[in-house]
Design brief:
The complex is a heterotrimer of chains A (299), B (450) and C (326). Chain B has 450 residues and is an alpha/beta fold. Chain B has 18 helices and 13 strands. In chain C, helix 2 packs antiparallel against helix 13 and helix 10 packs antiparallel against helix 13. Classes of the chains: A mainly alpha (299), B alpha/beta (450), C mainly alpha (326).
């Protein structure tokens, strides 16, 4: 992330945008009524998360009490989660799947998005509509045919077999978002590259790509989160802990019988895997916001 | 999905590849991309549909006990998450006693729904990955009618004696055994003797439960399979049924109306709290653990959990009661059977594993080590089992009196027709009369499924 | 994500600017040819991947939807044309599920938009703790959907849930309501859970839009003597329209395909079964492959139609691209 930040910081100097007055937050702070709203909003956002945390600290009969605070907080659930080798394996799997799907999607999508945003091409709008339409297809209908193909070509229950179909949904998201970012970059910059004798492709990777880093970062984060969260494809296309990602592994936590839902363990596992994502969002929130601001919504 | 498209002869696949290789160097970029796409798509399509055609068979395959002699190699049992460890334990012990065979338990789903989906997908792709399936008792008809599992009539007939008859019935479809009962399940009534008395009949239970809010009865009335089971337990006790021996729909009966009205009134009168409309097994158990209720209907696994809770030592267990003064108590069987994949490469080892899992010695361990209800009668009398499961006799009574759920390849649809309409009545949205009529109509429509 | 809002009202630059900036203008035909070739090459890899893993399964699902597969006899199937569609469209189930999905979508998306705008306005103010507020509202966005569904279910558990406990402790009415067991309330809880998780997403998009509204617009309004509320209504809101529309498109597409929330919270009881759930039930539970595939395709078509309507009336990236005809 540090390189990306560096680039962003340097961006205004490197690529003078058309000077534009931007509205700064007004100085008038919120009044007492607004403060009340702010507190309410924070409470609404945090209460379910608190409840999850609360549940994760309970064990045994405490789970069947409606206590607002765990009277005998215990880390037993966390110990269970970390002792579960399969769960640790699933974290590794999720990282591999999410990172590679995001990386591959970003490479392919940046090519496609550049062509759609900048190059002459027939039936552009149709292509973009087609790409977007893929995202509207219910995943259950795709999962079953994929299963039968994957088992026959040996991709079933492999990380690669999960990564490839994740691309189907990651690509449209990335293409659609990146197309917008690329469209915002002033054309004058490419024009001067052409003057220097660059080919369109050189103009793309020497001029446009470096300028689009904030947009690329925003897109990558959105794609990463969506890939990380998706459940239906991996649950259909994996069968062993060696290939199973986190959302599926959480579903695999079980109590002592088929009927028993180990709420405490599930909550602890949820907290454990949510925290890195919260950190990611926190670290990147400025990036997300500034990326959006810089690239997308032009006044 | 069901492989039906006749497989293209292998030559056409080769042809496709040939074209592919040939065209690329010459073609211009855009055309090349388009052709590549078409070629790849075509190849994928062949891969998807092609597998089935040549090996597709609808013939029934069967196994016999003798096949196990000299069996060797690998054998895989596939099923859902092994919560109690019984499945892993069984294959491990089996491998230890039969060093020529390496048995393995593979978890293919987090719960039984997912596990069924995964099995169906494998079977539609005619996969030989799993040799045995750990099958919920309600799937047997469906899998048997599709010829997805092997006929085990000869094998299972061999140990009919000594096995609880009701459990054998779950493995039966059209007079043949398609699976071997492995461990079973039947529900029990848990109650608090300081507040209420032992259940003699459902009427008496509801009456006592309605006497005070803290005596109330909690069960599973969420709109799902569990509600079907809860309703059928009362229906069977009242002498009603869903399908008769020939598969005709017989649920449209006075018994069904009476039972539904009884359940709806129970909610209205406060004998059962309205919250049961959101309860599954686990939610029921948690609610009962809070100590706010008098009776609970649940499976045997709850016994140990209750003993780890604040209620430890204060509750009692009873088999399900009868419906009415002189009715016969009945219930619904749960549990798991072992079926052999029709596409298995090693049915010999699969038979050996079934022989091992069902023999009375191992059945005792099923109960003593893993707290599951054995299908072997002798296991219930074993002192070690009785020590581990003090309620063994009640459980045995429940299992012996219980019946299977309706046998049909379209069971999931039948169950939906039951729980959706039962839910409507219990929640107060429909009258028992119209709901039962609709149940019957929907079950008949489901049976007409092609 | 905040893609494609190119032309905010009042800032039309006209197509001329773009055309003049086209690299191909100097030597039209040669450049154009080269560009088209390059464009095709650049789009090809992404399209290939999508064709491989999406187009084929979709086409396959279309084929499945026109057949019927026997549940009684293995391997038996017959071509039935559009019969599965006809029986779906003439069944009450499909229309009920569709109605329920639209109710869910209408409530959740409009609430998310309103709350998202409010949240964005808050975040756009200067006050101590703005960073904290931004951090806090983003937490729900990071929680897995399945996890959030389980959390909301336990919160609304009739006896042990947070909501009942708090209501009873405060002596408020509603302590005895079985939230997930009553038709209206069950839907309300599902909407609430969805709003909780996705309002921050809308807020982010709107905030991005807010931050680029030029100050001079407001200065002009102040000179005209417009009040705060009037300024918001007449100036801010119209300028935010592109961002709001974009958020609404993405949210609507997602909401129409809702599955996890009702699946975990109610299993479809009490008027909460969505289109995706119905398709799932037929495909997975009942193994009615043909009927289930037809329902998936119908869901797909419904979502497509709604998104086309959005694009037709509200714009977005696609229209921007389409306007840029050669």
């Amino acid at each position: 992330m540090s390189t990306a930040q560096g680039t962003v910081a340097a961006l205004p100097a490197a690529a003078p945008r058309p000077a534009r007055k931007v509205r700064r937050p007004r100085n008038a702070g919120p009044g007492p009524f607004l403060w009340l709203i702010i507190v309410a909003v924070m409470a609404f956002s945090l209460v379910p998360f608190y409840w999850l945390l609360n549940t994760s600290l309970k064990a045994g009969s405490a789970l069947s009490s409606g206590e607002l605070f765990p009277s005998a907080p215990t880390l037993a659930n966390y110990v269970t989660v970390f002792q579960d080798g399969d769960f640790l394996l699933s974290i590794r799997n999720s990282v591999i799947i999410a990172v590679s799907a995001t990386a591959i999607a970003m490479v392919f999508a940046s090519f496609a998005a550049y062509a759609l945003a900048r190059l002459r091409m027939r039936r552009k709008a149709f292509l973009l509509a087609l790409i977007l339409s893929v995202t509207t297809f219910p995943a259950i209908a795709i999962a079953a045919p994929l299963f039968s193909i994957w088992t026959q070509i040996g991709l079933y229950d492999t990380l690669l077999g999960v990564i490839i179909p994740k691309l189907t949904f990651a690509l449209p998201l990335a293409i659609y978002t990146l197309t917008s970012f690329f469209r915002e970059i002033p054309r004058e910059l490419e024009e001067s590259a052409y003057m220097d004798g660059a080919s369109p492709f050189q103009a793309f990777y020497r001029v446009i790509l470096p300028l689009a880093v904030p947009g690329l970062a925003t897109t990558a984060i959105l794609v990463f989160i969506s890939v990380w969260n998706e459940f239906l494809l991996p649950v259909t296309l994996t069968s062993s802990p060696e290939a199973r990602p986190v959302p599926v592994a959480i579903a695999f936590f079980s109590g002592t019988s088929e009927f028993d839902q180990p709420l405490g363990t599930i909550s602890a596992a949820s907290i454990i895997i949510t925290i890195p994502l919260v950190i990611l969002v926190l670290v990147c929130q400025k990036r997300i916001v500034s990326g959006l601001t810089a690239g997308a919504v032009k006044g | 999905m069901p492989a039906k498209a006749p497989a293209k002869p292998a030559a056409s696949v080769d042809g496709m590849e040939g074209m592919n290789v040939e065209t690329i160097p010459r073609g211009k970029a855009p055309r090349r991309a388009g052709q590549l796409l078409t070629a790849v798509a075509a190849a994928v399509m062949l891969a998807a549909c092609g597998g089935g055609g040549d090996t597709g068979t609808t013939e029934t395959q069967s196994v016999n006990p003798g096949m196990a002699d000299g069996a060797s190699g690998e054998v895989k049992l596939c099923g859902h998450k092994d919560a109690s460890g019984i499945n892993r334990g069984t294959v491990a012990e089996f491998t230890k006693e039969n060093p020529d065979i390496q048995a393995e338990y593979v978890e293919i789903g987090a719960n039984s729904d997912q596990s069924r989906t995964q099995m169906v997908q494998r079977l539609e792709g005619q996969s030989a990955e799993c040799d045995l399936f750990l099958m919920d008792v309600t799937w047997v008809s469906e899998f048997a009618s599709q010829n997805w599992v092997m006929d085990q009539t000869e094998l299972v007939s061999g140990y009919e004696e000594g096995t609880i008859p009701s459990t054998l019935e779950t493995a039966l479809y059209e007079d043949k055994y398609w699976a071997a009962p492995f461990y079973t399940n039947a529900s029990l009534i848990y109650y608090m003797p300081d507040k209420v008395s032992a259940p003699e009949s459902w009427q008496q239970l509801y009456e006592e439960a309605g006497a005070a809010p803290e005596n109330a009865f909690v069960y599973q009335a969420q709109q799902y399979e569990g509600l079907t089971v809860n309703f059928l337990e009362l229906l069977y006790s009242a002498g009603g049924e869903v399908l008769d021996k020939d598969g005709n729909v017989t649920i449209d009966s006075p018994e069904a109306r009476e039972v539904l009205e009884f359940m709806a009134q129970g909610l209205e009168a406060g004998a059962a709290p309205r919250s049961v409309l959101t309860y599954d097994e686990d939610a029921t158990r948690l609610a009962f653990e809070s100590g706010d209720y008098g009776y609970q209907r649940n499976w045997p696994h709850v016994y140990r959990l209750l003993n780890e809770s604040a209620l430890a030592g204060t509750f009692e267990v009873a088999p399900l009661p009868a419906f009415g003064e002189d009715g016969t108590p009945s219930g619904v069987l749960g549990g798991w059977n072992l079926a052999i994949n029709a596409f298995s490469d090693n049915p010999e080892a699969a038979v050996a594993l079934i022989n091992f899992a069902t023999n009375p010695d191992w059945q005792k361990r099923v109960a003593a080590d893993y707290s599951q209800a054995p299908v072997s009668e002798a296991a219930y009398d074993d002192p070690a089992v009785q020590e581990k499961m003090p309620f063994a006799q009640q459980l045995r009574e429940s299992v012996e009196g219980a019946k299977p759920r309706p046998k049909s390849p379209v069971y999931p649809q039948i169950s939906q027709a039951i729980y959706e309409n039962a839910y409507a009545v219990i929640s107060g949205d429909a009258s028992a009369d119209e709901a039962v009529t609709r149940m019957a109509e929907q079950i008949e429509a489901a049976q007409e499924t092609f | 994500m905040a893609a494609g809002i190119d032309q905010a009202p009042g800032r039309h630059t006209g197509p001329g600017r773009r055309t003049s900036a086209r690299p191909g203008r100097a030597t039209p035909s040669g450049r154009t040819q080269a560009e088209r070739r390059l464009a095709r090459k650049m789009v090809a890899p992404a399209l290939t991947v999508m064709a491989l893993v999406a187009a084929f399964p979709i086409a396959y699902a279309v084929w499945l939807s026109m057949n019927q597969y026997s549940l009684r006899q293995s391997g038996l199937s017959r071509f039935v044309g559009l019969n599965n569609y006809i029986s779906a469209l003439t069944s009450g189930e499909w229309w009920t599920a569709m109605g329920q999905t639209f109710i869910f979508t209408a409530f959740s998306v409009s609430l998310e938009i309103v709350l998202g705008i409010g949240l964005a306005l808050l975040l756009n103010m200067a006050f101590r703790g703005r960073g904290l507020l931004r951090t806090v509202v983003l937490v729900p966005y990071a929680v897995l959907t399945v996890v959030s569904a389980i959390t909301w279910r336990t919160m609304f558990e009739p006896n042990l849930g947070l909501v009942t406990t708090v209501l009873n402790a405060l002596g408020l009415p509603g302590g005895d309501v079985v939230w997930l067991g009553e038709p209206g309330y069950a839907m309300a809880v599902i909407v609430l859970a969805d709003v909780w998780k996705t309002a921050p997403f809308v807020a982010l998009l709107v905030l991005a839009g807010l931050q680029v509204i030029p100050t001079d617009v407001y200065e002009a309004a102040e000179l005209d003597g417009a009040g705060k509320w009037k300024t918001f209504l007449n100036i801010t809101l119209p300028l935010l329209k592109p961002a709001i529309v974009l958020a609404a498109i993405f949210r609507t597409l997602d909401a129409l395909r809702v599955f996890d929330l009702p699946f975990v919270l109610t299993r479809g009881a009490n008027g909460t079964e969505s289109m995706s759930m119905l398709a799932y039930r037929e495909l997975r539970e009942n193994r009615l492959v043909g009927e289930g595939s037809a329902l998936s395709i119908l869901t797909f078509i419904t979502v497509m139609v709604v998104s086309l309507i959005y694009i037709r009336f509200a714009g977005g990236n696609i229209r921007a691209v389409a306007e840029e005809k050669e």
